[in-house]
UniProtKB/TrEMBL annotation:
It comes from the Bacteria. Pfam families: DUF72 (PF01904). SUPFAM superfamilies: TM1631-like. It comes from Pedobacter hiemivivus. This is DUF72 domain-containing protein. Coiled coil: none annotated.
Length: 314
């Protein structure tokens, strides 16, 4: 993921402090009580990384079998693969079968809306591709998690009516989180309030993207009592900084859980994904320790903390 990427020499100047909660968060969680067993889904954005061979995948695993191995370690994936074309039902059934055969952790696929819908049609006259998309992802069955709708950097508040019209015509029972990137959604106070009020009205979520170069996207607005966070780390050379950022998220999520947050989706990205499992495992450890997440730790073939193995790992 290159969104929000800054040069290594610029990272020290980035203020990673998490902002205060937004106004909509207070409204969404008002009067709620802590959930007895909130759900946690922690994963990555892709499974097809050859660098994960001899790290979390057995050395001789074929690429066609990477998903079979991925679902043994994680209980979810932010499925970007379906963004580039509307998936066909046969492919979805193939992926579902891999989860059925190899996952034992309530695995969920969280598919991205096709770019035909979001970036080419820009949500206008998108009924046909939307119906095709929904028909295909329905094949995930019990393995279908929330879908996420990402709009482009040039999709600003002037498109509010288009966005609302699209959102309100989606199936009521379809779990959806929306990611917006145009800066005016966050800097224009009126547009910001209108956006998050609308998402709350239709019971759709708002994605929080924590990337170094776009701190405005860390908007801290909850429109439903669930969160979908896309965390973008900066690689092993900045591990201490990334781990500290995870620690800050643990503290904030704890406050939301105490106020009634029911479900957490937390997806790990890096600009180079080769060591993302290490960042993900740290996240799992901290969520288990401080948030009682009960997520299974990743089973590394080699100890990721053993520097003598770095040549084998990477």
């Amino acid at each position: 993921m290159d969104f929000g990427k800054v040069g290594a020499n610029e990272l020290r100047a980035v203020d990673f402090t998490l902002p205060e909660d937004g106004k909509q968060t207070a409204i969404t969680l008002a009067g709620a009580k802590p959930v007895k067993d909130p759900a946690f889904y922690i994963g990555c954005a892709k499974w097809g990384r050859k660098e994960w061979l001899n790290m979390i995948y057995p050395p001789k695993t074929k690429e066609a079998d990477f998903l079979d191995e991925y679902v043994k370690h994680f209980n979810s994936i932010e499925l970007n693969a379906v963004f580039y074309s509307i998936p066909n039902a046969e492919l979805i059934r193939k992926w579902r079968a891999k989860a059925e055969e190899n996952a034992s952790n309530g695995f969920l696929f969280c598919p991205k809306f096709s770019r035909t819908i979001s970036h080419i049609k820009r949500l206008k006259d998108a009924e046909v591709p939307t119906d095709l998309y929904l028909s295909s992802i329905h094949e995930f069955g019990q393995f279908l998690g929330p879908c996420f709708l990402q709009l482009g950097d040039n999709f600003g508040p002037k498109n509010f009516d288009v966005l609302e019209n699209y959102i309100k015509h989606l199936p009521i029972d379809l779990e959806v989180f929306v990611e917006l990137r145009h800066e005016d959604w966050f800097s224009d106070h009126a547009a910001r309030a209108q956006l998050f009020e609308m998402l709350a009205k239709y019971k759709k979520g708002a994605i929080i993207t924590d990337a170094s170069g776009r701190r405005d996207c860390v908007h801290m607005e909850l429109t439903i009592p669930e969160i979908f966070i896309r965390f973008v780390g900066n690689g092993q050379e900045h591990k201490d900084s990334d781990f500290a950022r995870i620690d800050d998220w643990v503290v904030r999520i704890k406050t939301w859980l105490d106020k009634g947050l029911a479900k957490v989706y937390f997806f790990l990205h890096q600009h180079d994904e080769k060591d993302t499992p290490i960042l993900a495992n740290y996240t799992i450890e901290q969520f288990n320790k401080h948030l009682s997440a009960k997520a299974a730790p990743i089973k590394f073939i080699n100890d990721p903390n053993d520097l003598t193995n770095q040549g084998e790992l990477f």
